[in-house]
Design a protein that fits this description.
The protein has about 250 residues and is an alpha+beta fold. About 50% of the residues lie in helices and about 20% in strands. A hairpin with a 3-residue loop joins strand 5 and strand 6.
Length: about 250
């Protein structure tokens, strides 16, 4: 099954972008080729651009503390597996403590690295980090793969508390809400929204064999989902068949 997330606010949008970038960094760091390590560093630079908001750390800590309180309120509930609950609470507490213990701005250790910042500046120029532009970077890419991996892990390490925090929050968010099986008639579906607590994200799940993908437009009053087929030349067009899918409205 393929899953698609659609955020309803900038806060969740930022977390999803960071999750995507961290996934690319972690995957490419584990690879051995210099091109993978180059891609990992470019994604790391993009993470720095996304987290350049002073309140992000505060937002994450507040949400972790709120979830810890909620989880503690479930202790003793016979419908909850207590061993799993305790593990989740401990993970939240450990992650929050680690994130809180850092006294510097997120990513500041990387910003203080003049060599990395010189590469980041050139990376914003198309083709700007060719070997004749930054020979020191070309030299680094030619080093032993273990040395490159060690450097990347060193640069990434100060950001891992951030990653663990957003991973926990998004995991809880995706697990919230009830899932409903629905049908998009002729590829289109609309649903009015209500309730005192608006959704923060919706999750759409479709069969892997479905030859189309969902596009979502939404506001606090309604959501509109249109399933389109992919054409590598023309712009996507709406499917003209009924599409079965699952929809979850998620809220922390």
């Amino acid at each position: 099954m393929s899953s698609y997330d659609y955020p309803f606010n900038e806060r969740i949008r930022t977390l999803l972008r960071l999750e995507d970038l961290f996934g690319k960094v972690l995957h490419n760091v584990e690879s051995t080729h210099e091109i993978n390590h180059h891609a990992a560093l470019i994604s790391l630079f993009q993470i720095l651009d996304v987290i350049d908001r002073a309140e992000l750390k505060t937002d994450l800590l507040q949400e972790l503390d709120r979830q810890r309180i909620v989880m503690n309120g479930l202790r003793g509930n016979p419908a909850i597996a207590q061993n799993v609950l305790i593990e989740v609470i401990e993970e939240i507490e450990t992650t929050a403590t680690t994130l809180r213990s850092s006294s510097v701005k997120l990513g500041q250790t990387l910003r203080d690295n003049e060599w990395l910042m010189s590469i980041k500046q050139r990376a914003g120029i198309p083709g700007g980090i060719c070997e004749f532009d930054v020979p020191s970077y070309h030299y680094w890419l030619g080093l032993d793969q273990e040395r490159r991996k060690q450097d990347l892990e060193t640069w990434l390490r100060p950001l891992m508390p951030l990653y663990e925090s957003l991973r926990i929050i998004l995991h809880i968010l995706r697990g919230s809400g009830a899932t409903a099986g629905l049908v998009a008639v002729n590829g289109a579906y609309q649903q009015m929204l209500g309730g005192a607590k608006p959704a923060q994200m919706l999750k759409i799940t479709v069969d892997d064999n479905l030859p189309c993908f969902p596009e979502v437009s939404a506001n606090k009053y309604a959501i509109n989902i249109r399933f389109n087929s992919l054409d590598s030349v023309q712009k996507p067009r709406q499917c003209e068949v009924d599409v079965n899918f699952e929809l979850t409205l998620c809220n922390l």
